[in-house]
Amino acid sequence: MKSEPLILACTSDFAGKVRGKAFPQDQFEKRQKRGIGWTPTNVQITCFGAIAESPYGALGDLVLIPAPETRVSLDYQDGLPAEQFVFGDIVHTDGRPWECCTRSLLKGALDRLKRVTGMTLHGAFEHEFHLKDGGCPVGSAYTASGFRLQRSLGEKLLAAMRSAGLKPDTFMKEYGADQYEVTMGSVDGVAIADHAAILRELVYVTAERTGKQASFTPLRDPAGVGNGVHMHLSLRDGAGEPVTYDPNGKHGLSEPAGRFIAGILKYLDRIVALTAPSVVSYTRLTPHRWSAAFNNLGMRDREAAVRICPVSEMSDIGVADQFNFEFRAADAAASPYLALAAIVHAGVQGIEEALNIPDATEEDVSLLSAEELKQKNLVHLPATLEEALRAFSEADIVSDWFSTEFADVYAKHKTGEIAFLEGKTEAEICDAYETAY
C-alpha cells in the first residue's frame, strides 16, 4: 500500500522546541485558511516534557495557520519519507493573534519598529551545535581533519538549506568537543526567525539521516564552552537601503542604530530571560567563555553582549551593506521568534527614549570594580534563570511590550522547568539539557 505524504504544521514554543500536528499534503491550500486545531496548554510543555502550571487547564481552543513562505519539502533520497514541515501563527478561533504565539509576538515587535521609525530589520542567526559521540579527537578545534570528519553532514546540510530557501554561508569545526557552527545569509523581518527555526530542524534531520545525533544545548559540560546563538542585525529604511552605518557616527553607527543598541543594552538584564532561558544558560553567560556576562558594547569583542562587526575593504559588497552588529547573549533554548521580539522591543524603546550611543569597552570588563562598572553604566547580567525571571517579571515596561498574560504564562513555564531539575547535580542538569535540545 502506498503511503500518503504528511506535512507537519509547526510552532516554535516557549521552550524553543518545535511542536506541531500533521495533515495530508493535499490539504495544504485549505489549511492555510482553516488551519489546524491547537490547545492553549501546549505552550506550558517544558523542554523536559512536563506541563508547567497552566492558567488554561483543559479549556480553550486555538488554530495554527500555516505560513506558506516557511514550507519545507526535502527528499533526501535515502528511502525514507520526504521531510515536510511548515511554520505558522497561532490565532484565536475568530482570527485574532494569540497572546502567547511567538511568531505573532515577533510580528508585533517588527510592526512597532516600522510604526515608530519607518525602518525594517535585516539579519541572520549563527548557530553552534555539537554531535553526540561525534568522534573528533582532542585538538580538532578549527582543523581540516575535524571538518573532514563531518564533511558529508555539512554538504548535505548546506544542500538542504538551499533547497529550503535559506542562503548557505559557512560550515566549520568549532572550538568545543564535537562542536560545529553553521551560518546563513541575511534576510528581512520575520523571515530572520523563520530561517533560524528552519535551520535548527534541518540540522536535526540531516544529522539523523547521516547516523548522527545533534544537540543545541547551551551547555554540554560545566567545564565546556557551550553552544551559543549569535544574531547579526542591521536596520533598513523604507526603500530597503541600509541605515546602520554612518562613517561620521560614533563607532561608525548612525544615530537610530546607536540608540537601538543602547536600548538593547539598557534593558538586557530584563530581557535575557527570553534570549537565554535555560538554567545552564547562566553557567555559560560568565566571563572568559566567549559569551556575554555584562551589558556592554564591544568593537570586535567576542565577550561583549553586542559586538560591532568588522567590514572588509576587499569585499565586493559596500561598507553600508556589510555593516552590522551582533547580539551574543542568546542560545538555542530560546525560540528565535521570542528572542528577536525582545531585542526589537528593547531597541525601539531606546530610539523612543533618544538614548545616547554607548561607549564601547576596550578591556576585560570582568576585572572592573563595582565603582568602575557604575561609571560606565554597566551591570552584570543575572547569574541564574531565577534572577533573570525576577528582573523580567518586575519590569513593567518590558511586560507592556507584550501582555500581562504572556509575562505570567512565560514565568510559570520557566518555573516549571526549574522545578524539574531540583535535586540534580550540575552534571545531571547538563545531561538533561543535552538530551532535551
What string gives the helices and strands in order? Answer: EEHEEEEHEHHEEEHEEHHEEHEHEHHHHH
Radius of gyration of CA atoms, rounded to a whole number: 21 Å
Structural class assignment: alpha+beta
The CATH H-level homologous superfamily of the largest domain: Glutamine synthetase/guanido kinase, catalytic domain
Strand tally, please? 16
Could you say how many structural domains there are in total? 2
Estimated share of beta-strand residues: 15-25%
Shape: globular
What is the fold named in CATH at topology level of the largest domain?
Creatine Kinase, Chain A, domain 2
Relative helix content:
25-40%
CATH class of the largest domain: Alpha Beta
Summarize the SSE layout with pairings.
Blueprint: E1 6-12, E2 18-24, H1 28-34, E3 36-38, E4 62-66, E5 72-74, E6 83-92, H2 102-117, E7 120-131, H3 144-149, H4 151-163, E8 168-173, E9 179-184, E10 187-188, H5 191-209, E11 214-215, E12 229-236, H6 255-275, H7 281-284, E13 297-299, E14 306-308, H8 319-322, E15 325-327, H9 336-352, E16 360-361, H10 370-375, H11 385-393, H12 396-401, H13 404-420, H14 426-436
Parallel strand pairs: 1-6, 13-14, 13-16
Antiparallel strand pairs: 1-2, 3-4, 4-6, 5-6, 7-9, 7-10, 7-11, 7-12, 8-9, 12-15, 14-15
